[in-house]
């Protein structure tokens, strides 16, 4: 998960009962496997003393920053969103390195063409 991020900032008040997501996400970030995936990723923890709701701010390697409300978003959901965006970034980088335009625009008529190398699914055969 951290391999797609350059910075993670976790803010919470330790006395606030809504900090579960922040603490779980912090534990995931501190896991050995996560740290090894990107040792350069900065991890900042800001312990607040005010009533500001817990939040997690992540900065992706391309500089895009996202702020998650940790009171209403589970840590696993945040992790999943990071991984999905990371896969998108990897795909974009792969196309750019190959000299292809990004984003790839597929003409509408090509989206509906059948591919000669595929077999129809059995469930689809039964429908016909």
UniProtKB/TrEMBL annotation:
Leader peptide range in chain numbering: none
Disordered: annotated span: 107-128
Compartment(s) where it occurs, according to its Swiss-Prot or TrEMBL record: Mitochondrion
Domain of life: Eukaryota
Gene3D superfamilies xref list: Glutaredoxin
UniProt keyword annotations, A-Z: Mitochondrion, Ribonucleoprotein, Ribosomal protein, Transit peptide
Recorded family membership: Belongs to the mitochondrion-specific ribosomal protein mL53 family.
Record protein name field: Large ribosomal subunit protein mL53
UniProt organism field: Hibiscus sabdariffa (roselle)
């Amino acid at each position: 998960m951290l391999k797609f991020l350059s910075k993670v900032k976790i803010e919470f008040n330790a006395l606030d009962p809504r900090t579960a997501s922040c603490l779980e996400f912090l534990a995931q970030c501190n896991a050995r496997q996560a740290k090894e995936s990107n040792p350069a990723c900065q991890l900042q923890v800001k312990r607040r003393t005010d009533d500001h709701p817990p939040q997690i701010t992540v900065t992706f390697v391309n500089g895009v920053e996202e702020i998650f409300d940790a009171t209403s978003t589970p840590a696993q959901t945040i992790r999943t969103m990071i991984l999905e965006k990371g896969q998108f970034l990897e795909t974009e980088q792969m196309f750019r390195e190959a000299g292809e335009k990004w984003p790839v625009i597929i003409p509408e008529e090509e989206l509906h063409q059948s591919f000669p190398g595929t077999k129809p699914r059995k469930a689809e055969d039964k429908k016909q």
